[in-house]
């Protein structure tokens, strides 16, 4: 490999100045939590996630960053779902933090209870994270989540968004994008896959609660993910982070493409990364290399029908969503440019 | 699922839950082609709520879930009882409590569906023991829901729902499903929405969309559906909700009998465990021992006279069930002066025919 001239290298192995995980060329302060020798391994190897599971990757980086930020004073609640199941099959657990499995829909409420108990016991240094998939967050857990936001309980809720109910067999959730194939939105008829103009953005709804911190993150940019978790643990009150986690099984993507798929979702504008403080947008991650939506879709069989000429209108609709995100969050303009 | 379609079910709403999800997926796939609508709710509360609205508006509605979902259905089941709505609820039982073991079979919801909402009012629950019976009893469930204007439960389990099996098409026996008795919507002076006397009677339903504004309420109500708590009105209301089922147990009771003259032991079972019981009967008889068997298909209301008749003349009744002895309680309540032995498993493993044979011999 070393013989290949740099101009012909498809991948730069040691890109200085970027946030590639484990990049030892960065100064100490900017290295990722995972790159350090004292990393905590919150989610240990040997769990039963599928190959290329985005959720396993996201959960490990998020919880490790939270452990670092809190000095290992952390309790994690976990809604029913893949993460719960694959991390704790008998006779072993992958978790190295105190962990509570709740019901499918009440992780936020259980976490609120834990936080309240810590306060009563005078143990407020112990912080609480609630975790759930998109089904457990945007659908069945939505009422409890909104209540936690409403009371501004001292809980960080992390939603691992893989855009469908994967644990029960890939059924549509309200985080499933338009046109996507799931077991309950089959690619048949004139409008194959999931209907457009349905679903909801829980990050934006969280912002409408005016809670101290809301962010979206993606498993292709783990340094950014860690930073956002660290920032979230630096404030008290209700906080929400949604992490974009590709699911090879449910999406029909190659396990080895998980990070690539996540990157293309962001670079195409399909999944905007942003932060909000007290309900106000405070920052967005600019797209470094703008890609057409088709590049993102073609790696996933759940969108295979979209790329057929007969469904060109669906491709246009998805592109329009990405374009709208780019405009709304100003994802392309550079400093000094006007948008 | 096929039974539901054959019954004219035209509305389904559900929420993903193993092992009931295949019903949701098939209904979403197949209902639209038959002019029906299948919907996926954002949770169980929404799913059964949609069924309530659909049933009230004239649809033949069904939903399907498993034990944790029945917990969330609870308040809406009460609404269906109070509003006297025909509704079929499939409970594909799995090992509980709580999330329990989603892909592990059990029969643990037998008492839960009976007492699963406030007040203790009766419901109807049918329990198929073979795949073909799933078809037939689903049709029967729709028929009874129309007949009694109440929620009817179909108590399936994980083994019945998720096991692939070849079935002879001729085993799918059709049951006639009656049409809903409704008040003529063009009637300018229709009868009241509800009637409590005679207590055991069920009156035709008034649907939305006629000449007369129709009221529906989950609160205690007068016969024209105004909220009240007057004892002389809500006493008869609640009496009616009980008597409309308890006065007609004979119409509901379904058992399968396999009696042998001179048998000293009666085996009782239901659902998937009845399959093991049938096999145990074959094994025992091959050995020359006489034994009788009773499969209960209508769990609620309890087919008391059939059970008492079956137990007449035996020394011992043996009931096999995948729970801590939930239906054994009913046998103990109904049968007297006969020894009742329970075979229970709550470890997720089916009761084997050999396990039953051991107890008999």
Describe the secondary-structure layout.
The complex is a heterodimer of chains A (339) and B (361).
Chain A: H1 54-70, E1 74-78, H2 82-87, E2 99-101, H3 107-120, E3 127-133, H4 134-139, H5 142-150, E4 155-161, H6 202-208, E5 213-218, H7 222-233, E6 239-244, H8 248-251, H9 258-267, E7 274-277, E8 280-284, H10 293-297, H11 312-329
Parallel strand pairs in A: 1-2, 1-3, 3-4, 4-6, 5-6
Antiparallel strand pairs in A: 5-7, 7-8
Chain B: H1 2-6, E1 11-14, H2 21-30, E2 37-40, H3 44-56, E3 61-65, H4 67-82, E4 87-95, E5 101-105, H5 110-114, E6 124-126, H6 131-148, E7 151-157, H7 158-162, H8 231-246, H9 249-252, E8 255-258, E9 265-269, H10 273-286, E10 292-296, E11 298-300, H11 304-311, E12 316-321, H12 328-334, E13 339-344, H13 353-360
Parallel strand pairs in B: 1-2, 1-3, 3-4, 4-7, 6-7, 9-10, 9-12, 12-13
Antiparallel strand pairs in B: 4-5, 6-11, 8-10
User: What name is given to the CATH topology of the largest domain in chain B?
Assistant: Rossmann fold
Q: Could you tell me how far the N terminus lies from the C terminus of chain A, measured between alpha carbons in angstroms?
A: 41 Å
Number of domains of chain A: 1
Number of domains of chain B: 2
Summarize the helix and strand pattern of chain A as letters: HEHEHEHHEHEHEHHEEHH
Q: Measured on Cα atoms, how large is the radius of gyration of chain A?
A: 20 Å
Question: How would you sum up the major sheet of chain A?
Answer: 8 strands, mixed
Q: What's the architecture of chain A in CATH terms? A: 3-Layer(aba) Sandwich
- The CATH class of chain A, by name, is Alpha Beta
| Residue-averaged pLDDT of chain B | 94
How would you describe the oligomerization state of the chains in this entry?
heterodimer
What best-fitting shape of chain A do the alpha-carbon axes yield? globular
- How many DSSP-defined strands of chain A? 8
CATH homologous superfamily (4th level) name of the largest domain in chain B: Thiamin diphosphate (ThDP)-binding fold, Pyr/PP domains
Measured by DSSP, the beta-strand proportion of chain B falls in 15-25%
Helix content range of chain A = 25-40%
